[in-house]
Design a protein that fits this description.
Length: 173
C-alpha cells in the first residue's frame, strides 16, 4: 500500500522509527536499490504464472454487471480481443485453449509502458476491487534488474548503508 501511495519509507511500529525502502529491501545498499524496480513499477509481463491464473479465474467468468474480461479488454484498448474470444455466437469454441484474460495480459504486455500499477488502476476503474487487491497482494515487492550479461549491476561493497534490520524490524514486517 505504501508503494501505491507513493511513500518512500515505512514506520517500524515496534521500534518507533522510519525506515526507507532501500533499508528494508536492500539492507541499506543504495547501489542495489538503484538497480531495481518497486512492485508497482514492474512491467506487467513479469507477473508470475499463478498470479495470471488467479486473475483469469476472477475475470474470465461472465459478470452480470459486465465487469469481466470483456470490459477490461475495452479499457485496456484491445477491443479486437473481445470479438476473437467472445463465444456467445452459438456455443463454445473448440479451438479455445487459452483464457481470455491470459490472452489479454499477453497482448497488453507487448507495450513497454504497461506496469502493474496501470493494470491495478484499470481494474479499479472497472469496479473490480477484488482483482485489484489480489494483484496488489500477489505482485512482487521489488525486482532487481540485471545487466545484459545476467549479472547483478552493482558493486559487491554494499555494507556501508544504514539499515535498521534488527530482529524487531524484520519481525514487524
Amino acid at each position: 500500500r505504501a508503494q501505491a501511495q507513493k511513500e518512500t519509507s515505512l514506520t517500524n511500529t515496534m521500534g518507533g522509527y522510519k525506515e526507507s525502502f532501500s533499508s528494508i529491501l536492500c539492507f541499506g545498499c543504495l547501489d542495489v536499490y538503484s538497480q531495481g524496480s518497486l512492485g508497482m513499477d514492474i512491467h506487467v509481463c513479469d507477473l508470475n504464472f499463478l498470479t495470471r491464473r488467479k486473475l483469469s479465474r476472477l475475470l474470465d467468468p461472465p459478470d452480470p454487471m459486465g465487469k469481466d474480461w470483456c470490459l477490461l479488454a475495452m479499457n485496456l484498448g484491445l477491443p479486437e480481443l473481445v470479438t476473437k474470444y467472445n463465444n456467445t455466437n452459438g456455443g463454445p469454441q473448440k479451438d479455445f485453449l487459452i483464457s481470455p484474460v491470459s490472452a489479454l495480459l499477453q497482448e497488453w504486455s507487448n507495450s513497454p509502458e504497461n506496469t502493474v500499477a496501470m493494470l491495478m488502476s484499470k481494474l479499479r476503474e472497472l469496479g473490480r476491487r477484488d482483482a485489484a487487491d489480489f494483484l496488489l497482494r500477489a505482485s512482487s515487492i521489488f525486482k532487481i534488474n540485471f545487466d545484459a550479461n545476467g549479472q547483478e549491476a552493482y558493486a559487491s561493497s554494499c555494507n556501508s548503508g544504514t539499515s535498521y534490520n534488527s530482529i524487531s524490524s524484520v519481525v514487524s514486517r
